[in-house]
Amino acid sequence: MVQNITSKITIIGAGPAGATLALFLAKYKIPHLLIDQASFPRDKICGDGLTCEVPRILRELDESIYQEFINADWVKPSNGAYIELKNGQKTSFESDNFSRNTSAVFVAKREIFDNWLISKLNTEYTQKIFSFKAESITRIGDLVEITGNQNGETITIISNLIIGADGERSIVRKTFHPEGIKKNREHCAAAIRCYYKGIEKLSDGNPLEMYQPKLIPKGYLWIFHLPNGEANVGFGGLSSDISENKINLVKEMNLYIQSNPDLKNRFKNAEALETPKGWGLPQNSDAYNYVGDNYLLIGDSAKFIEPLTGKGIGVAMFAAMLAVPTIKNAISKNTFNKNQLISFENVIENKYRAEWDKLYKLQNKVINAWYVPLFVTLLNITFIKNYLIKKQKTKTRKFLNKPLNKKVLDDYNLFENQ
Ligand SMILES: Cc1cc2nc3c(=O)[nH]c(=O)nc-3n(C[C@H](O)[C@H](O)[C@H](O)COP(=O)(O)OP(=O)(O)OC[C@H]3O[C@@H](n4cnc5c(N)ncnc54)[C@H](O)[C@@H]3O)c2cc1C
Question: Which CATH number is 357's domain given?
Answer without folding.
Answer: 3.50.50.60
